Amino acid sequence: MKPVSALFAAILLFAPASAQSDPAAADIKADMAYLASDRLKGREAGTPEYDMAARYVADRMKQIGLVPKGDHGGYFQHVPLLAYRAKDPGTMVLHDKSGHNVPLIFGRDYVVGADGRTPLLKRDAPLVFVGFGLVAPEHHRDDYAGLDVKGKIVVALSGAPKFLQTEERAYYRSGRTKAAAALAHGAVGFVSVGTLTGERLYPFADYVRQYQSWDMTWVKPDGSPFFAVDLPGMAGISVAGAHKLLGTETDKILAAAETKDGLIKGFALPWSLKAELHTEIKKAESENIVGLLPGNDLIGAEYFAHNPTVPRSAIAADVDLDMPILTYEFTDVTAFGADRSSIGPSVKRAAATMNVKLSPDPEPDEGIFTRSDHYRFVEQGIPAVFLATGFANGGKTATEFFMRNHYHKPSDDLSQPIRYDMGAKFARLNYAITRELADGPRPAWNKGDFFAGKFAGK
After folding, report:
1. CA–CA gap between residue 400 and residue 278 (Å, rounded)
2. DSSP assignment of 112-143, as one string?
3. What is the pLDDT of residues 376-421, one digit of tens each?
């Protein structure tokens, strides 16, 4: 039998029947009422409140008959974690060869990064601007061409050029991808500069407000923390602060970043950056909750993808449910990743059965494809799909309102006008896809697909 992912959110939605007129909607409401309650304080990994939520989900898995596939025959997979965050704003000062100093101002010019490798990070190195930092051989594009960044700190624009297809754009705008390119060219640090599009999507003030939020990574068997790229992300520079780094060319650079090609020639900046970062680091522990939905022929995210509790070869696909907007009657979805593998036809059939249309990504600058749990499976060469509720039938207004007013804010709670019937509809759509994948041929990447070329060898 072939196992299919049973992710945290998915399990909540595969609900048992009740006496309500819409049993699934009623069960979803009950699950959300507990898991989103103030009592659980946001369910941050490594906290007692997360443990309460995990036990609840495991109980629900048992009720609906999922086979336990965690450690030692249970539903839990132990995950050793390292938590880290910026201890304070740190210091960042630009200086040139003549000894002229220009301090960067925290909260206006920059927001500090955190480095989980060390509580104290010092860098003093020349700065090199590399445009978007795009290295895409398939598009004959190398923003590092002609630049020497060895032993230097790379300065790159956030985001990626608009000519890239939405999921490929998400890959190339990813901090991991950009840091990997910088490290491969010999850089000793990475600084990201905001763009006009980035400021519209996520105002710099929001990053400042959240700068002391905890980041997490998992701990490898040898006790060392996992970091995909061994290069510190030192700071994010605001659009306003960009003028201090990039000088008189700043406005031209920001305007060019908004064009389709986004072709911006890099250059060595006249500045070096002297930076000191202080990071608070602590150990934490948490659990994945893993259940198996058996099929009829032939599971969190990154830790499980690297440390599966079933044979890696048995993981055929990943279906990810994460953050649908349920305050309106959705009539379309964007199926991220579906058309990159044989998962696509299953998605089309399930959507057609429920009279749901498939729409292209309405906001490719968001880089959604690399920002949810499914992508950690893609990085391990496993085909995946992630459905997002669409912009039709009032979806654009509902989504933009939520992102502007409630995303990552205390007001994201059950006081919102949640359509639990739409939660049930979203669950049934994902279940139909999952059921077909469980019962059908093993999903495979499309021949020549971009992500297959990057990761399928794993």
Report:
1. 35
2. E---TT-SEEEEEEEEEE-TT--EEGGGTEET
3. 999 999 999 999 999 999 999 999 999 989 988 888 888 999 999 9
- Smallest Cα–Cα separation from 275: which of 122, 378, 148, 166? 122
- Cβ-contact 280, 119 below 8 angstroms: yes
Angstrom distances, CA of residue 309 to CA of 2, 85, 227, 277, 305? 14, 30, 21, 37, 9
Give 211-249 pLDDT, tens digit per residue: 999 999 999 999 999 999 999 999 999 999 999 999 999
In a domain, 3, yes or no: no
Residue 269: what residue type? L
- Do 44 and 175 belong together in one domain? no
CA 89 remoteness from chain centre: 24
DSSP 98: T
Number of domains in the chain: 2
Please name the residue ranges forming H helices in 354-410.
Answer: 374-378, 395-405
Instruction: Indicate whether 277 and 302 sit together in one domain.
Output: no
pTM: 0.87
The strand pairing partners of 446, in sequence order, are none
441 burial via Cβ count (<10 Å: 0-12, 13-18, 19+): exposed
